[in-house]
Amino acid sequence: MAAQRIICPSVAGRLPQIPAAAKAEVDRNLALLDKQIEEANNRLARSAGEGGPNFVRNAILGPLSSKRAATLDRIAIAIGRVAERPTGLDRLAPCQLSNTDTPTPGNGNPDPGDGTGSPAPDPGDGQDEDDVAAAIGPSAADFIDIRQVPRQQQPRGAGNGSRGTFVSQCGTNREGHFNTDNLIIAPGVTNGAQHLHDYVGNVSTDAFSTNESLAAAGTTCRNRADQSTYFWPVLRVRSANDKPGAPEVNKNNVGTPVLPSVVRLEYRGNPTSQVTAAPRFLRLFSGDAKAASNGGANARPAWTCTGFTDRITDKYPICPSGSRLTRIFDQPSCWDGQNIDSANHRTHLTFPDDSGACPSGTQAVPQLRMTLVYNNVPNTRPNGTNVPFAVDGFATERHNPNTDHAGTINVMSEQLMNNVVRCINSGRRC
Question: Which residues are within 8 A (CB) of 189 and not within 5 positions of it... i.e. 6 or more apart?
Fold first, then answer.
């Protein structure tokens, strides 16, 4: 009996002409596709006889599909930076088993087994769609009418607080910079996020970025001295036509990604003190993408609607007609004065206490508030697992709204950061 092998759709033959400026990155990712298939086949050989009937699908084919999808996305992004971005590459991510001793040729097999050269069938086929939808989440219990959320009183600043603001205008990701990486939490790990992130600011950010590559890259920010990277998980609109379990990047993330219509990046002061300059390459991270599993200690969801911003909820809000869905991310702003990162990516930069004061041994730096406003998100009421929208996330988290999160790496020039500090400490709006 012939040994089973994993075969995948060919990629190189499906690409358009590759511009010279993108060739090195594309070649690197094509080689990575080869390595992913080789590793999956090695795992298949080692695990012969393990697990139940779904072991290969869940433990090998599923993760391989996710890795390939992220790599294919990186190829599309690399080409799209200098030419028209190729579409449909995500359909080449799924692979399947074949009883053959023939090695898989470069970065995939030209025919996945059905003689058409099309991608392998979705391994979720045959599952009950209601059961799959319930497992994917979210459900109606994760939503609330914003008018039912109590108003919150805003804290008042002390006399020696810093009340100015500085806004960096960096667009709304019309450039199409997406990937499933997380440079802060999982540097060097392809598909480390396992869900899709939106980016503005630095145009090069991915899992393999370094401080040096970020500093050398372009930016979408109007002020070119702000090369910072700003990112958050995409929001997807759900519809009755979505097939539960159908992957774009990972199987649980279904629906159509929508861009925010407004992205406001506002650096603010501290209610009790002046602020000092944040160091270049400082890592900022707010929220916990695994809050549903981890217990929520680091969760910082802030959902609201325009016209109701004094009502903040940890559930997905249903906004009334004329009001727009809004996400708010307040980044930590109390720096230890020494480190740009830490082992857990949190202790070097913490949040102020309830009064706004920074903990002993830390100093206040400009506090970044990221506000995203969406025009094209439906306000239909959820019914069971038929929901209007959801944020991307890990499969284990069932798209819980508490898992919303955002990250930033400060790559402002020293001069620009000093300007930000002066604006804030002098009480100006810049």
Answer: 181, 182, 207
Q: Which of 205, 235, 208 lies closest to 410 in space, CA to CA?
A: 205
With cut-offs at 50, 70 and 90, classify the pLDDT of residue 122.
very low
How many other CB atoms are there within 10 angstroms of residue 151's CB atom?
9
Whether the model clears a pTM of 0.85, i.e. scores above it, the answer is: no
Q: Of 255, 239, 369, 252, give the one whose Cα is nearest residue 304.
A: 369
Q: How far is CA 318 from CA 83, 167, 253, 305, 412, in A?
A: 39, 28, 21, 8, 36
Q: Which residues contact 370 (CB under 8 A, 6 or more apart)?
A: 230, 232, 263, 264, 265, 266, 328, 329, 331, 406, 408
> Stretch 398-423: mean pLDDT, rounded?
97
Question: Cβ(320)–Cβ(379) under 8 Å?
Answer: yes
339-355 average pLDDT score? 96
Comparing C-alpha atoms, which of 59, 7, 14, 54 is closest to residue 34? Answer: 7
Residues 210, 259: contact at Cβ < 8 Å? no
Question: 94 near 199, Cβ under 8 Å?
Answer: no
Q: What share of the chain is helix, strand, coil (3-state, %, to 5)?
A: 25, 20, 55
Measured distance CA(335)–CA(95) in Å, rounded = 46
Q: Are the CB atoms for 298 and 350 separated by under 8 Å?
A: no
187-230 pLDDT, tens digit per residue, is 999 889 989 999 999 999 999 999 999 999 999 999 999 999 99
